[in-house]
Design brief:
Blueprint: E1 8-17, H1 30-45, H2 48-51, E2 57-60, H3 81-88, E3 95-98, H4 105-118, E4 124-132, H5 133-141, E5 157-158, H6 169-173, H7 179-193, H8 198-217, H9 230-234, E6 242-244, E7 247-248, E8 258-267, H10 268-273, E9 282-291, H11 305-318, E10 325-330, H12 335-344, H13 370-384, E11 389-396, E12 401-408, H14 419-426, E13 439-451, E14 454-464, E15 470-475, H15 480-488, E16 495-500, E17 505-508, H16 511-517, H17 520-540
Parallel strand pairs: 2-3, 2-4, 3-5, 10-11, 15-17
Antiparallel strand pairs: 1-8, 1-9, 4-8, 6-7, 9-12, 11-12, 13-14, 13-16, 14-15, 16-17
Helix pairs in contact: 1-3, 8-12, 11-12
Length: about 550
């Protein structure tokens, strides 16, 4: 079949892993590791010297240290990551792009630049990304003064961190920090919706992830390949403690990695002109991108309507069904994302492999760039199986941003638009949240945050009995009673009492316990409000 010259294709893929160096002074910077991956991607396609001058766009996934204040980079960095990488392969792109944060970004970049290639807005696009958090952590620990600073001239289109809006004021006020407790809240809500006990659900999460470790163990690009049994994953231990209940360490993404990946995109016409072998060509058949409401606004905390919509639209646009998918790689930062993807693909009862890399808890979680590894892995499998189809599902935020791609070596391309799907998602009702809840309530979801192996505090999302409004609150510091209760059984639906302290909302198992732990001023305010409510009830009667 004749293929239009404007058809976008993926022609080069590469991954790099750097184990910790005995001599940390030799540790690679993020730009060096990404540059190594870029060079290998060009070699994979054809040749570095022939392809580098043809690259007119270099787009780089934002590193974790540049994404949030939680990941400082003490050893310096490049002031222009795309051009640092381009310089290492002797490329001089017209456009140098540094993306926002988000695990959805790699697939989103493929979607965006495939469209632009098809429209004639680019000729050859290099995508790359890297993380060196493992070396950074080790160098800090051993007080090795690395110097990774680079000052590169040239234009830069910096999209900013994109961190703004990722957390609302109420979440931050109640110490809902980092991804693990946020996802744990979603996970506990999902557990409740399935009416499962803590032990049964924990075992299910572990059984879902154990096969991932088997894939990681055979992947040469894994940071620390090892097979884990479901029992090991589920059981808390000295080396597998809770991070945010119910997640053990083995259930969450491993960000302390040194990994990089790169992809080279072009058009059929350009590939023909450069004599890039057709056996290298991988086509994007369908894709979709959606955005979920913020965590507290979602009606159902334990599911993502946007995730389901993205997977279903991508399949529809590609004209394939789930049974047609031979290779799947799902962003697996936490078990719930994999479980939701399996549900969207109607694979809940299937043992079909959901990863080609080994997943973020085992292969490694190189920050925002993980799915570039997923795309590279799927592409290599498709090259070996030219009639097969593959799917990559990328996830960003708290099941917030989703990007899905359907790939094959069989020719195919269609420009896709998710705007109508997104409009439907945006039309869904927004859950009302109160900032100053008072009175009796029921737990809607919860997690217990751990530090140094010990439970520190609970984060609880609940609904007020009287109004049905949602709230977020913490347990009181030192309230061992509620922490023990929350971790001993499934407490979703349990009655609690909530009050506002001025420094945030607090929850206890009873009114007496709440009043006993309240600061005096807040206690008096709460008692006065309770008296006023009783009086109002009497008058109304």
């Amino acid at each position: 079949m004749a293929v239009d010259n404007n058809t976008p294709i993926l022609v080069g893929v590469a991954e790099v892993v750097e184990p910790l160096k005995e001599n940390l002074n030799e540790a690679s910077s993020a730009q060096t590791l990404a540059g190594n991956a870029a060079e290998l991607a060009l070699q994979d396609a054809l040749d570095v010297e022939r392809l580098a001058p043809e690259i007119d766009v270099v787009a780089v996934t934002r590193t974790f240290p540049d994404s949030t204040p939680m990941w400082p980079m003490p050893f310096g960095k490049s002031n222009n990551m795309p051009r640092s990488i381009a310089q290492r392969i002797n490329a001089n792109p017209q456009h140098a792009i540094y993306t926002k944060m988000g695990g959805n970004i790699p697939q989103s970049l493929v979607n965006e630049w495939s469209q632009k290639l098809a429209a004639g807005e680019a000729n050859m696009v290099l995508l790359a990304g890297a993380e060196v958090i493992a070396s950074t952590k080790a160098a800090i620990k051993h007080k090795v003064p690395l110097n990774w600073a680079e000052d590169i001239e040239g234009s830069l289109d910096d999209h900013g961190s994109g961190f703004q809006g990722m957390r609302d004021a109420q979440s931050l006020k109640h110490m809902l920090m980092g991804a693990p407790p946020c996802y744990a809240l979603c996970e506990m809500a999902r557990m409740a919706s399935q009416k499962k006990s803590l032990s049964t659900y924990a075992r299910g999460m572990a059984e879902l992830l154990a096969p991932f470790s088997e894939v990681a163990a055979s992947n040469p690009y894994s940071m620390s390949p090892r097979i884990y049994s479901a029992e090991e994953i589920a059981t808390p231990s000295e080396n597998n403690g809770y991070v945010a209940f119910p997640y053990t360490k083995a259930m969450v993404a491993k960000v302390h990695v040194n990994q990089a990946a790169a992809l080279l995109l072009t058009t059929v016409g350009k590939a023909r002109a450069l004599d890039i072998d057709e056996s290298k060509w991988v086509y994007l058949h369908g894709y979709a991108e959606t955005v979920e409401k913020s965590l507290l606004e979602r009606e159902a905390l334990g599911q993502s309507l946007a995730l389901t919509a993205a997977y279903q639209q991508a399949l529809k646009q590609a004209g394939v069904d789930t049974p047609d998918l031979d290779f799947i790689d799902i962003y697996s930062c936490f078990p719930i994302v994999v479980a939701e993807a399996k549900a969207a693909l109607e694979l809940v009862d299937s043992d079909k492999a959901m990863t080609q890399t080994g997943g973020l808890p085992f292969f490694g979680g190189p920050g925002n760039n993980y799915s570039m590894h997923g795309i590279a892995s799927v592409a290599r499998k498709l090259r070996d199986n030219p009639k097969a189809f593959g799917l990559v599902g990328a996830n960003g935020g708290i099941m917030h941003k989703h990007a899905v791609g359907i790939y094959s070596c069989q020719p195919g391309w269609i420009a896709c638009d998710s705007s109508s799907v997104q409009a439907e998602l945006d039309s869904q009702p927004v859950t009302q949240v109160t900032e100053n809840p008072e009175g009796e309530a029921r737990i809607e979801s919860y997690t217990v945050q751990f530090g140094r192996g010990m439970p520190m505090y609970a984060v609880i999302i609940g609904r007020l009995d009287k109004t049905g409004e949602r709230f977020i609150a913490n347990s009181f510091e030192g309230d061992a009673e509620i922490l023990q209760a929350l971790m001993s059984k499934n407490c979703v639906g349990q009655r609690v009492v909530v009050g506002s302290t001025g420094k945030g909302n607090r929850v206890a198992l009873s009114k007496a316990s709440l009043l006993a732990q309240m600061p005096l001023r807040s206690k008096l305010c709460l008692m006065a409000m309770s008296f006023a409510q009783r009086c109002a009830t009497v008058i109304l009667k």
